[in-house]
């Protein structure tokens, strides 16, 4: 039995929910319909696809097209996949996956606003410094290149900020573009990305193993750190483990593949603490460091250098399987490691036949029945999809800004020692805002976002909804900007007119096609009319109604 | 490092304690009902305090001498005065447990094992205790560190945040200024909105079905909605609106206030020190010294609040450090660690042991001493002992574990 509030009566949600007979021990057995899941309505399917692919809800126009003609659904999904609007989602996914999207104020970030960046805010400097890694993936996907370029690209992504930090040349307006080091180092995409190696350091005695391990997790989904290894009793580690990793079978089990790959990363400086930087560029590469490393092997296959290693990885099926697993997991809002092998098998052919381009893979996933399932889709080897997908703080921030124009920003007028912090968006910010409270990953201690609801997420949603509601009412009813309130004015109080507006809001906000006299619209109307009766003001009534509707569980779960 | 702001009685709002639910529910007449996990992430060198090996050629131990605090025989390097001040004051309720096998050398994996007893899906011990003993609190499990694990119990947990963001989230006066105008609903408006959201959650369940994770997630939503409201109602007059706390980054004071004001039943604190001393291992002394200062402040605050006799504290690091100094004067990872269990009902002493090479020795669980035919201590055994001391059924929560009976008074 769940606890009841000690503040007055129990909340209605709990009471009603329990009345439905729902509890955490609810039936988890596969249903007969597991192989043909119940699916969302076409408009809800479109909404889910838009959120997964772009991080925003569909436009009203797109929703109306599908409402009026469900056959338009696949074409609209194709349009989303084909557009550059998928870029931020690709970047977000890779930042989360590579653990490079993280707090921006101290180690392993803390890039100072100095030298050519001295007129910039520290937040903007660090945002750029950490984004370059994920920008590589975004660039590959948007350019429709083979995804294998992630480990073979003969460039890094840079803008005018990271060019200053790493010592690169960029052209034109200094926006994100391909750039190359001219100091003799090799380029192999992620395998030579400068920030990846700042984020994932290696001590002298670790000898690049941690980097090798993180690369394995990132690129071929082999997570050495999560292997269930039990250090045997009596194993001799007093020499730092040097003998054990050669002689002890338990140790050799990992180290015979982990260590030979580590040699590929040996030219990267071990530990870099950006906050101690006194001038740019930061030296991240030193070829002399590689002198005492053994030849590079990828699971026994020799590689001449890191470029060769990239080619070998790209040709290995583990790379493609991992790419499918990661993208599927992201689209389904589930942990990649939980994706059943049979699902990976299903999509691997599509991915490889399409030359490992990501767009066709995303389209195939987004159009599938499993993607549109209303409840868990179970297979013999695991759960292929959950029903309710939980929006991350990244989603919530983008959805709210797209719907209402509201962006929760503040100016952190504070110098942390290496520059003034400056403008920060709060919903999805780890350091100053509420990403962790709203269930997001922090790229350091929290690797995966929360998949369920928690109290602080609802507090964040409440805060954002309140400010957004006031802004929408002011913009739409006073200034006539028409974000959400497109069918009413500040004087509109007629029930029919208000219900028509509510019907449109339910479509726009939740992808719900509902009638003016339906229960959902009546619930919203009850809020509106109650406040109208109390205050006599349609403006006040809309503020309250939107305050509630922008916290709706249909926004948290899609 | 966190500030050393003393915990102020005035900020506790003790007058509100009775109104906010009165005395905590004790599961066991002599057991503590509140739990603090104090986690030293990075891996501590147990030879600096708990488990030195003077004279052993196989283990580099800092110069020092044995010192006795009550029933505890510990190592004194002369570099950690605050550590020994802490032990001098609290030794009568401290069990030191040595030779705990973590069975891994990787920080994240070791942390999981130390905090959960090795389960990949189970919540950590503080979350377990919070769920069992404090579901009636607004936030049964309050986390002040990112290593906490509330798997399956997310709706009962809340984090403070690295910049104390929870405070600004519920007390807008503390928040960073924003140009946006906030919406401030009346109580009646809040009730209307709560009814709307409840109805919509039920609608979602009815539309999508309540099978598997749908049911779990909607149950969590319902509980979270309730708890979010409780948090908001709790804030006025509580530590959450304490401006000096908001500016202090003082985990200890936040933790003590959360327990004293019955906001939470269990708290997780991360020590702010960088314990992973692959280089410069002598930093371990200052790390122990600073941590001990925090623990002294914590116990002072718990005493001041009148809850020290109802609070169990587990102090642990996810791994130890290797016996020998490496080429950069540091020590690498080691799969055996130590822990301190501090609180009422604890039989003070040093239990468990390692040999002269810092390898685990088996122990007799009833005497706590070395025994070749005894038990090889695992992380889950420590957690089972903690919940046993709190009056919970150790066998229920850690079915494969053994309680260290010697440490249970």
Mean pLDDT of chain B: 91
Counting structural domains of chain A, the number is 3
Name the largest protein-protein interface in this structure: A-B, 109 and 99 residues
Distance between the termini of chain B: 35 Å
Oligomer: heterodimer
Tell me the strand percentage band of chain B.
5-15%
- Helical content band of chain B: 25-40%
Classify the helix fraction of chain A into a percent range.
40-55%
Query: What's the main sheet of chain A like?
Result: 2 strands, antiparallel
Rg of chain B (CA only): 22 Å
As a percent range, the share of strand residues of chain A is 5-15%
What count of helical segments of chain B does DSSP give? Answer: 11
Q: Order of strands in the sheet with the most strands of chain A?
A: 1-2
Number of strands of chain A: 8
**CATH T-level topology of the largest domain in chain B:** Alkaline Phosphatase, subunit A
Outline the low-pLDDT stretches of chain B: 1-29
CATH superfamily heading of the largest domain in chain B: Alkaline Phosphatase, subunit A
CATH architecture of the largest domain in chain B: 3-Layer(aba) Sandwich
β-strand number of chain B? 14
How would you sum up this structure, described in words?
The complex is a heterodimer of chains A (558) and B (409). Chain A contains 21 helices and eight strands. Chain A is globular. Chain A has helices at residues 12-19, 42-54, 60-68, 73-82, 87-97, 122-142, 160-166, 194-199, 209-220, 244-247, 249-262, 306-315, 317-332, 341-353, 358-366, 393-404, 455-478, 495-510, 519-535, 538-549, 553-556, and strands spanning 156-158, 177-179, 296-298, 301-303, 377-379, 382-385, 409-415, 420-425. Chain A starts with 11 loop residues before the first helix and ends with a helix. In chain A, helix 2 (42-54) packs antiparallel against helix 3, helix 13 packs across helix 14 (341-353) and helix 16 packs parallel to helix 17 (455-478). In chain A, the strands form four sheets. Chain A has a two-stranded antiparallel ribbon with strand order 1-2. A two-stranded antiparallel sheet of chain A has the order 3-4. A two-stranded antiparallel ribbon of chain A has the order 5-6. In chain B, helix 5 packs antiparallel against helix 6 (213-234). By secondary structure, chain B is α/β, with parallel strands linked by helices. The model of chain B is unreliable at 1-29 (pLDDT under 50). Chain B has helices spanning 81-90, 107-116, 125-133, 165-170, 187-208, 213-234, 243-246, 251-260, 283-304, 379-389, 394-397, and strands spanning 34-39, 65-69, 72-76, 94-101, 141-144, 157-159, 266-270, 311-316, 320-321, 333-334, 336-342, 349-351, 353-354, 360-361. In chain B, the strands form four sheets. In chain B, strands 6-5-7-1-8-11-4-12 form an eight-stranded mixed β-sheet, sandwiched between helices. A two-stranded antiparallel ribbon of chain B has the order 2-3. In chain B, strands 9-10 form a two-stranded antiparallel ribbon. Chain B folds into two domains: 9-169 and 240-407, Alkaline Phosphatase, subunit A (3-Layer(aba) Sandwich); 172-234, no CATH class. In chain B, strand 13 and strand 14 (360-361) form a beta hairpin. At the A-B interface, helix 1, strand 7, helix 17, helix 19 and helix 20 of A face strand 6, helix 4, helix 5 and helix 6 of B.
């Amino acid at each position: 039995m769940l606890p009841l509030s000690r503040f007055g009566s129990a909340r209605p949600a709990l009471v009603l929910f329990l009345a439905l007979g729902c509890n955490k021990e609810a039936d988890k057995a596969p249903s007969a319909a597991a192989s043909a899941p119940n699916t969302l309505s076409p408009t809800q399917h479109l909404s889910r696809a838009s959120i997964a692919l772009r991080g925003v809800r569909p436009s009203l126009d797109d929703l109306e097209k599908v409402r009026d003609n469900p056959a338009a659904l696949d074409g609209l999904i194709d349009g989303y996949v084909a557009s550059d609007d998928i870029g931020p989602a690709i970047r977000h996914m890779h930042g989360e996956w590579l653990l490079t999207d993280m707090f921006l104020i101290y180690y392993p970030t803390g890039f100072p606003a100095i030298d050519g960046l001295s007129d910039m805010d520290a937040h903007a400097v660090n945002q750029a410094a950490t984004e370059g890694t994920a920008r590589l993936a975004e660039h590959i996907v948007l350019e429709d290149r083979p995804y294998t370029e992630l480990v073979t690209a003969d460039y890094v992504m840079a803008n005018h900020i990271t060019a200053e930090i790493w010592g690169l040349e960029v052209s034109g307006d200094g926006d994100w573009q391909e750039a190359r080091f001219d100091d003799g180092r090799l380029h192999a995409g992620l395998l030579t990305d400068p920030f990846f190696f700042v984020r994932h350091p290696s001590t002298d005695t670790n000898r690049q193993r941690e980097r090798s391990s993180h690369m394995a997790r990132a690129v071929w989904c082999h997570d050495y750190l999560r292997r269930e290894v039990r250090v045997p009793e009596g194993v001799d580690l007093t020499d730092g483990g040097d003998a054990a990793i050669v002689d002890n079978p338990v140790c050799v089990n990992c180290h015979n593949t982990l260590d030979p790959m580590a040699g590929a990363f040996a030219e990267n400086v071990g530990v870099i603490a950006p906050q101690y930087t006194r001038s740019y560029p930061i030296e991240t590469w030193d070829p002399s460091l590689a002198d005492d490393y053994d030849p590079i092997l990828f699971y026994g296959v020799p590689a001449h250098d890191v470029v060769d290693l990239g080619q070998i990885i790209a040709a290995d099926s583990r790379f493609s399987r991992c790419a499918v697993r990661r993208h599927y997991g992201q689209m389904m809002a589930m942990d990649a490691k939980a994706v059943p092998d049979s699902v990976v098998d299903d999509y691997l052919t599509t991915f490889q036949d399409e030359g490992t381009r990501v767009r066709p893979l995303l389209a195939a996933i987004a159009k599938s029945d499993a993607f549109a399932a209303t409840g868990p889709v179970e297979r013999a080897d695991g759960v292929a999809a959950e029903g309710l997908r939980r929006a991350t703080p990244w989603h919530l921030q983008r959805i709210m800004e797209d719907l209402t124009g509201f962006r929760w920003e503040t100016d952190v007028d504070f110098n942390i020692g290496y520059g003034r912090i400056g403008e920060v968006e709060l919903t999805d910010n780890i350091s100053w805002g509420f990403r962790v409270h709203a269930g997001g990953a922090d790229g350091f201690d929290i690797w995966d976002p929360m998949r369920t609801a928690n109290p602080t997420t609802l507090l964040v949603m409440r805060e954002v909804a309140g400010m957004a509601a006031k802004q929408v009412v002011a913009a739409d009813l006073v200034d006539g900007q028409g974000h959400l309130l497109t069918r009413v004015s500040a004087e509109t109080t007629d029930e029919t007119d208000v219900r028509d507006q509510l019907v449109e809001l339910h479509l726009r906000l939740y992808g719900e096609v509902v009638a003016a006299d339906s229960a959902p619209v009546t619930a919203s109307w009850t809020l509106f009319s109650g406040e109208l009766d109390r205050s006599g003001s349609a403006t006040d009534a809309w503020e309250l109604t939107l305050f509630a509707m922008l916290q709706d569980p249909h926004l948290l779960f899609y | 490092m966190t500030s050393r702001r003393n915990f102020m009685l005035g900020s506790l709002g003790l007058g509100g304690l009775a109104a906010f639910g009165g005395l905590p529910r004790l599961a066991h007449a002599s057991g503590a009902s509140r739990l603090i996990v104090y986690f030293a992430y990075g891996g501590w060198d147990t030879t600096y305090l708990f488990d030195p090996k003077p004279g052993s050629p196989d283990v580099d131990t800092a110069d020092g001498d044995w010192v006795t605090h009550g029933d505890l025989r510990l190592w004194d390097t002369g570099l950690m005065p605050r550590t020994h001040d802490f032990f001098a004051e609290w030794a009568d309720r401290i069990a030191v447990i040595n030779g705990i096998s973590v069975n891994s050398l990787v920080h994240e994996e070791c942390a999981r094992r130390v905090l959960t007893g090795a389960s990949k899906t189970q919540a950590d011990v503080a979350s377990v205790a919070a769920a069992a003993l404090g579901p009636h609190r607004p936030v049964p499990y309050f986390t002040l560190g990112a290593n906490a694990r509330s798997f399956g119990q997310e709706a009962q947990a809340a984090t403070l945040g690295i910049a104390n963001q929870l405070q600004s989230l519920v007390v807008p006066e503390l928040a960073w200024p924003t140009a946006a105008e906030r919406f401030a609903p009346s109580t009646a408006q809040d009730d209307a909105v709560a009814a709307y959201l409840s109805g919509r959650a039920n609608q979602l369940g009815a539309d999508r079905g309540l099978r598997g994770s749908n049911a779990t997630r909607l149950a969590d939503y319902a509980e979270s909605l309730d708890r979010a409201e409780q948090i908001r109602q709790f804030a006025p007059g509580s530590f959450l609106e304490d401006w000096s706390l908001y500016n202090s980054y003082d985990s200890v004071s936040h933790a003590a206030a959360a327990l004293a004001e019955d906001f939470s039943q269990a708290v997780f604190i991360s020590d702010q020190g960088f314990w992973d001393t692959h280089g410069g291992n002598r930093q371990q002394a200052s790390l122990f010294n600073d941590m001990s200062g925090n623990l002294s402040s914590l116990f002072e605050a718990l005493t001041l609040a009148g809850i020290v006799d109802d609070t169990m504290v587990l102090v642990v690091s996810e791994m130890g450090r290797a016996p020998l100094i490496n080429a950069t004067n540091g020590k690498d990872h080691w799969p055996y660690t130590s822990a301190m269990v501090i609180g009422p009902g604890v039989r003070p002493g040093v239990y468990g042991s390692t040999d002269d090479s810092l390898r685990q020795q088996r122990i007799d669980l009833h005497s706590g001493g070395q025994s070749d035919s005894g038990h090889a201590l695992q992380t889950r055994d420590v957690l089972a002992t903690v919940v046993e001391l709190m009056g919970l059924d150790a066998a229920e929560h850690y079915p494969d574990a053994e309680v260290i009976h010697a440490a249970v008074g």
